């Protein structure tokens, strides 16, 4: 049975569309990480101004955990972008499950450590993760990547 996606498409327009889709995906992911970091910097500044040392420690740890939530998405999308769509989705969902497991373990371990403001930790984690997810979703919706469908052997005139 032939593979659903040829390894080397001959059509230059398909190659150009794939390159454009890759650029849009990477731009959306990089903007998402940047927005998440900016949101966490705002939370860190607020924790430093409004809180004490435990607030700043909590915000710093929450910011680090927010990177644990956003950076694996960037890495897995970059490493798996040439895979067929189902495999690509499996890689992204697998990385999501692993990072959620790591996040839960980290939060359980941090619950026992005194001197960390849990509310500031949560605010920084939530701000970084939600800002990144929102920016990524907005970037992908606004860019509307081209959908690639495997050829059926019919010409474009037959599809009309």
Could you name the key traits of this structure?
mainly alpha, 5 helices, 77% helix
Question: How would you characterize the overall build of this protein?
Answer:
The protein has 160 residues and is mainly alpha-helical. The protein has one domain (13-141). Helices cover 77% and strands 0% of the residues. The chain has helices at 12-50, 53-80, 85-110, 118-143, 156-159. The longest helix is centred in the N-terminal third of the chain and has 39 residues, at 12-50. The two termini are 28 Å apart. This is ATP synthase. The chain crosses the membrane at residues 28-50, 56-79, 91-113, 119-138.
Unreliable sequence segments: none
What is the CA-based Rg, rounded? 21 Å
Quickly count the helices.
Answer: 5
Distance between the termini: 28 Å
Q: What's the shape?
A: elongated
> What's the overall average pLDDT, rounded?
77
H-E order: HHHHH
Strand segment tally: 0
Largest sheet: none
As a percent range, the share of helical residues equals: over 70%
Structural category: mainly alpha
Strand residue content:
under 5%
Number of domain units: 1
Summarize the structure.
By secondary structure, the protein is an all-alpha fold. The chain contains 5 helices and no strands.
Indicate the topology.
Elements: H1 12-50, H2 53-80, H3 85-110, H4 118-143, H5 156-159
Helix pairs in contact: 1-2, 1-4, 2-3, 2-4
């Amino acid at each position: 049975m032939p593979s659903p996606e040829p390894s080397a498409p001959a059509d230059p327009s398909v190659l150009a569309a794939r390159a454009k889709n890759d650029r849009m995906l990477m731009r959306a992911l990089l903007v998402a990480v940047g927005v998440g970091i900016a949101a966490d910097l705002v939370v860190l500044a607020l924790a430093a101004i409004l809180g004490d040392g435990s607030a700043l420690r909590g915000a710093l740890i929450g910011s680090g955990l927010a990177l644990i939530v956003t950076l694996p998405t960037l890495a897995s999308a970059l490493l798996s972008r040439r895979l067929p769509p189902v495999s690509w989705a499996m890689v992204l969902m697998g990385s999501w499950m692993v990072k959620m497991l790591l996040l839960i373990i980290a939060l359980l371990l941090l619950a026992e450590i005194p001197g960390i403001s849990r509310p500031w930790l949560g605010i920084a984690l939530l701000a970084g993760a939600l800002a990144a997810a929102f920016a990524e979703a907005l970037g992908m919706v606004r860019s509307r990547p081209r959908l690639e469908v495997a050829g059926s052997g019919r010409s474009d005139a037959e599809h009309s």
